């Protein structure tokens, strides 16, 4: 981890995630279609 933890909330989340094997990758919006679709509000007219 390269960033320092600033808040107790961040430290708590880190403690929860330490037991898992995962990798966080940044994906620009055009490459991250699933997150883009989930973040858009669906409205029926």
TrEMBL record:
Superkingdom of this protein's organism: Eukaryota
Protein name: RNA-directed DNA polymerase (Reverse transcriptase)
Species name: Trifolium medium
């Amino acid at each position: 981890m390269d960033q320092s933890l600033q808040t107790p909330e961040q430290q708590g989340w880190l403690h929860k995630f330490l037991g898992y094997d995962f990798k966080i990758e940044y994906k620009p919006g055009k490459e991250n279609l699933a997150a883009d679709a989930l973040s858009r509000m669906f409205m029926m007219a």
